[in-house]
Please model this.
Amino acid sequence: MSGIALYATDVIALARKDLRLELRARDTLPAMLLFVLSTLAVFHFALPAGTDRDAAYGLLWIAIIFTALLGLARAWAPEREGGALDGLVLAPCDRSAIWLGKSLATLAFLGAAELVAVPAFALFFAPVDLVAVAGVALASIGICAVGSLLAAMAAASRGREVILPLLFLPLAIPLVVGGVGAGISPNGATYLSFLGLYDLVFAILAWATFEYVVTE
Amino acid sequence: MSSRNNLPLLAFLTAGLLGLGVVLAFVVAPEDADQGISQKIFYFHVPIALTAYACFGLGAWKALRLLWVGGERRDLESYTWIHQGTIFGALTLITGSIWARASWGVWWSWGSNQLVLFLVLVLFYCAYFMLRFSVDEGARRERICAVYALFGVALIPVSFFAIRLASDFIHPTVFTRSGPQMTHTMFTAFLVCWAALTLLAYVMYRVELVGKRTDAHLRELREALT
Model:
């Protein structure tokens, strides 16, 4: 097998391991789904009557970011609790494959939560068009790429539940700008390309630096 | 590393340049026709902001070198540069806020891209300290902090761009701050202030580095004794 095929096999095996764990234990995804729905319900009461659709759209993004944080906080929990990260680092695969596998698994969870959140948002608040959905998809890639690396950093620290949002939120600001812009601005394509650029820059950076975060 | 002896000399030079900068800015440079006395803060606000960028950049450069070639001292150097950068970043926020109050009548303006960018950066680098102090000391902490510092320099242009884009839908009218043409003396005063503040950052970096090294040394000695 060629190098790329081997790498892809590793990544798929790692991502599949996370999905299978979730299917058996179910301790992340149901929490994310319930959280995103309750957040949207809370926002209905937080928004004064007569607020326009643009303001509601910003709240969708807050819901997405915090739901992602909920998932990311638990992203490395299985590895940490079982002490399995050492095993993974020692495994004969490229270490960036661990990051990519984790990002893909997190993306699957976040995607599932958004499959509920976006229709629910359209039902409760305002219609969502195709550009907005593309914005959600592109921003999710960025959230998971950056988030799974930062979650690995936070997992190495003492106050991991507290540290992760502090690390993540400043980096998420450009994603919120891109996502909200794609939803409400008439020239949504600019924002979509900005999100694509963000994904590219930070995915490459995370891919290249992940090794340093996990090795002792 | 240059010798430690030139530090007092550098400190005196910095103090002199800063004094000269103050004199040039307040006495020699003409008063701005549009903004009057409040424009004087320009000579400090902008150089402080530029110095903060330089500090963050140098911090990331040291971090990159650490990941590339290793070396424990680079961790401390990177940390110290980021420390200085955060101080200068916070100063940028304060001086920018004062300027906004003087010229627009509000303490904070989301329309000023520079201020918003520094808010994001200061938040980001404050999280750096939180991260650093909650990971156990060792090779892994050095590398984690280095990776985070590298994310910082990637965040600067991306945020800059994002804030430009955001002002599209947050502020329909773009803020232009194109004042009157800068005169020769104004530009000289600006350059002197810039040089003085950059030098100040460097001197503070050196002092801080010596302090941190001594601290680490002391801890090693204490551990050896017990």
About this structure: The first helix of chain A runs from residue 3 to 25. The radius of gyration of chain A is 18 Å. Chain A touches chain B at residues 54, 146, 149, 153-154, 156-159, 162-163, 166-167, 169-171, 173-174, 177-178, 180-181, 184-185, 190-191, 194, 197-198, 201-202, 205, 209, 212-213, 215-216 (CB under 8 Å). Residues 3-214 of chain A form one domain.
